[in-house]
Amino acid sequence: MDENKISQYGDELYQAFLERKTLTPFTEREPEITLDDAYRIQLRFVKRRVEAGEKIVGKKIGVTSKPVQDYLGVFQPDFGQLTSDMVYQEGDVIDLSGLIQPKAEAELAFVLKEDLKGPGITAMDVIRATDYVSPCFEIVDSRIRDWKIQIQDTVADNASCGVYVIGSAKADPRDVDITMAGMVLEKNGELFSTGVGAAVQGSPANAVAWLANTLGELGIPFKAGEVILSGSQSNLVPIADGDELVCSVGGVGSCSVRFAGRSAV
Amino acid sequence: MSVTLNREEIVRLCERVEGAQTRAYSIPKLTNEYPGMTIDDGYAVQSELRRRFIEQGHTLVGWKAGLTSKAKMKQMGVDVPSIGFLTDRMARPENSVVSTSDLVHPRVECEVAFVTNKDLAGPDVTAQDVLDATDYVLPAIEIIDSRFSGFKFDLESVIADNGSSARFVGGGRARHPKELDLRTLGVVMEKNGEIVGMGASAAVLGHPAEAVAMLVKILHDLGETLPAGSFVMSGGITEAVAVKPGDHVIARYQGLGSVSVRFGE
Q1: CB pairs < 8 Å spanning A and B
Q2: Is the Cβ–Cβ distance between A149 and A23 less than 8 Å?
Q3: Under an 8 Å CB criterion, which residues of B touch A?
Q4: What is the C-alpha to C-alpha distance for residues B120 and B226, in angstroms, rounded to an integer?
Q5: Domains of chain A
Q6: Does CATH number 3.90.850.10 belong to domain B7-264?
Q7: What ipTM goes with this model?
Q8: Which residue of B111, B254, B258 is the best one to mutate when testing the A interface, meaning the one whose CB has the most A CBs within 10 A?
Q9: What pLDDT, on a 0 to 100 scale, did the predictor assign at position B166?
Q10: Residue B77's pLDDT is what?
Q11: Interhelix angle for A3-19 vs A35-51, to 10°?
Q12: pLDDT per residue as tens digits for the range A93-125
């Protein structure tokens, strides 16, 4: 795909993000679009947010579970970039009116204390370079109409990043079995679903190692202090005005979030 | 108790279930013949089966809770779990080969098992009472086997069939529940090296000790108690998975190690 088209599509995504509108899937408009094209569109989309004053604060890993990979017909995760306006603190109320068609996912977040430069990074390097892990919620959102996404559509759309909140609970990954740590997700006081770390690429640390190696190939920096959302351990949770979610990770702690307002769709 | 069957009918149904269990063949669900059969009728048949097994020299070692997940209760249209009894003849050692030739359609579930060191009785037992009366918890695999043809059954028939109880394997690491968060315990079940089930222990009524408390209440309704030294399986955390000869199943638990079993002819 030529550079003009990449820029055009990246700009369309940025505009859709600003106006809370959705786009026709790129895979419908450009049946030949490659994954590489999609990442270039993502870079353009994120560049527009950075030019508008945001900072890149981390990465998210998506498409980490086998059911989702099977559904999208891929055998590896994808990633998107986290920017400063996406961050909420635990206890904040997330304003849904800023989003288009949001859903929530419960995940384990990693915060790095050392740079991770792939290729050649393994799960052991990830543990070594991790300052702490925390339970978190990612509120995914799609600028693509009705979430009708193929892998190229979600990658171009910054891996369907919306906003996120990291719980104040922390654990050192040397003290917790992050592969076997259970995840309990409650919605409005009722059990919604349960999961376990192994649902994410066999272990959340594997997902982070994949990310370090992929970023290394692309020459994208992966620095100490960055936040990594390692991939969903729960089913997608529909959310609406007044909902409250709590996720608890065995041996780590919990994260809660509340929602107010109405999303665009 | 609302038992509608007379003594003769209870004995006849019990003999039918006993025959199916001991000679491994399937039978139509009992409600085909007795559409008005109640849950209490189911327990009356189960109690008769227990009495006969004990008379034949089997030793009662404990109980199991079934239908402990919201999804399964909804599926069966009930709001309480069911229970079944466990005898020494159903126990198999960790990592042994369990024969399938004397089973109808075996399936495996992974569960948290409790071993008690105090008597538990009455209608008001709480999860905390259960934890206070727990000597230790350990990983368990339950091999369930519905004796009803084509998996067509209802709650009344399943209860009469002793809650599909067939075999059980306990193993892994015994631990005191005070050392664990029994709500967020992560579990992964693998069959032949592939993950076939994942979840956290809250999938069982919010907390496995809640299921044991519920079990004691049902025992109370049956005029029974749970004596110290009982082995109790608290209910499947993962979906039941079908097994056949040659299969190897391992269930891994956060903080409790793992338990495995193989299947042969």
Answers
A1: 71
A2: no
A3: 70, 181, 183-188, 195, 198-203, 206, 237, 252-255
A4: 5
A5: 3-260 (3.90.850.10)
A6: yes
A7: 0.89
A8: B254
A9: 97
A10: 76
A11: 50
A12: 999 999 999 999 999 999 999 999 999 999 999
